[in-house]
Amino acid sequence: MPGRKSTFFLVLATSLTFFLVVSWTLSGPRSDATFQKHADSSTAHQNDTISSAHLKPHSNPTPSPVKTPYAIGTFVGTDTYGTEDAGDDEDRYYVGARTLVYQLLHAPSTKLTSPVSIVILVTKGVRESKRKRLRDDGATVIEVEDVPHNITVGQPRWAETFAKVRLFDPKIMPYRKVLLMDTDMVITRPIDAIFEDPSSEPMNSRKNQTNRADLPLATLPEKFAIAAAPESLDRDHPYPFVDHDHTKGYFNSGLVLYTPSTELFQHYLEIIARPDLFYNGFPDQDLLNYAHRWQGPMPWRRLHFSWYLNWPNQDDIDGGMAIIHSKFWEPDLPFGPGERLALSRRWEMQGYWMGKGGSRLFNDLVKLVLLLVYTPSLLMFLMVIPQVPYAYSV
Questions:
Q1: 78 and 183 in one domain?
Q2: Whole-number pLDDT of residue 243
């Protein structure tokens, strides 16, 4: 009888082990977004805890979850180049957003070294499959509606770009400072320190320099903070690209460091209602340059020249420019050093996630082998269990 009892407990333990292996196999790996790590893992934001939030015209928008004082925000709109049956990876700006998130959160040479939230605003035309992939990559995705306007935008790819202005709304972006970045950006080194650039500190508005006939003053904030880099216009420029004469008053809106403000956001909406004041073909860029013109009440300030440039040359890259703007997919634009670097980053991102997928596949194969090894235990359990009552009755 002791032998039968020993057999029973052996079979019971083996079956329990089998059950645990099966449960482990079927559960699968957790989303990579759950394991996003920064320098201080105790304060790392869990970006995979929020799904898309829809901003209704007359409802309170769902804000980005505040886990950090700083955030990097970008925008992905409806793909105006692809067809309805086009694959996700044919959407160049979506791929650009994935590449940007990879550089900020995963690439060994460029990832952030301190906790910074990554927030991507999308419009309703962006597929759920793209949103899920961006969340899995580590970003927070929030759906917003376009900003109402009566402006005819010439370029189809800019049709929804006024929605980017919602990145300035503290109801959506409740952070102390936000770095707005276009998705077609290449990063060469960690950029955490940009949030401490002196040019991004608050300034007092100069309300006496606004023409009351042009715009009401009620929405002007008492203080504001906005910093950017001037347009270089072409690659034929000296290094460093420094505006010693203070003559380059038009900045590129692909990278803007600012403090979100309700008054500032409302001020932008009022300007959008007056396209005759600002619009010259570049929706959000013309808007921001008018609102923050040097002669106006809230002049923009210049970031240190080493942070960002729109049209970089080899000297800029060799000199350590941190962020460069590059549309490597545009056949009509020159393919220069920035485009070569951008293309390499794009495929680096692809390889990284393919490797992650391969690792998960290997883990699944290991689980399958263990499942096959323990399957005989289940058969033994099924054969022996009918004898258990007899074993205890003797």
A1: yes
A2: 84
pLDDT digits (tens, 9 = 90+) for 128-159: 999 999 999 999 999 999 999 989 887 777 78
Burial class (CB in 10 A: 0-12, 13-18, 19+), 269: middle
Which structure tokens are listed for 290?
């008018």
Q: Same domain, yes or no, for 23 and 114? A: no
**Least confident segment among 93-102, 291-300, 351-360:** 351-360
Q: Among residues 325, 359, 381, which one ends one of the domains? A: 325
Statement to judge: residues 21 and 44 lie in one domain: no
Which amino acid is it at 78? T
Residues 67, 36, 167: CA angle, nearest 5 degrees: 45
Same domain (yes/no): 10, 54: no
- Beta-bridge partners for 204: 223
pTM: 0.77
**Contact at 8 Å (CB) between 76 and 120?**
yes
Same domain, residue pair 210 and 101: yes
Query: Total domain count for the chain?
Result: 2
Burial 52-81 (b: 16+ CB within 10 A, else e): bbebeeeeebbbbeebbebbbbbbbbbbee
The per-type count for the chain, helices as H runs and strands as E runs, is 9, 12
Structural domain including 99 reads: 33-325
CATH number at residue 80: 3.90.550.10
| pLDDT at residue 299 in the model | 96
Sheet holding 177-181, edge to edge: 140-143, 117-122, 70-76, 177-181, 251-258, 226-230, 301-302
Residue 81 and residue 155 in contact, taking contact as beta carbons nearer than 8 Å: no
Same-domain status, 52 and 17: no
With a CB cutoff of 8 Å and minimum separation 6, the contacts of 261 are: 168, 170, 221, 224
Q: State pLDDT tens for residues 161-207.
A: 999 999 999 999 999 999 999 999 999 999 999 999 999 999 999 87
Q: Answer whether residue 358 is part of any domain.
A: no
Q: Which helix (H) or strand (E) segment is 302 a member of? A: strand 301-302
Q: Which helix (H) or strand (E) holds 137?
A: helix 128-137
266-285 per-position pLDDT tens digit:
999 999 999 999 999 999 99
Q: Which residues, listed in sequence order, are joined to residue 177 by a DSSP beta bridge?
A: 70
Answer yes or no: do 6 and 49 share one domain.
no
Are 124 and 189 part of one and the same domain? Answer: yes
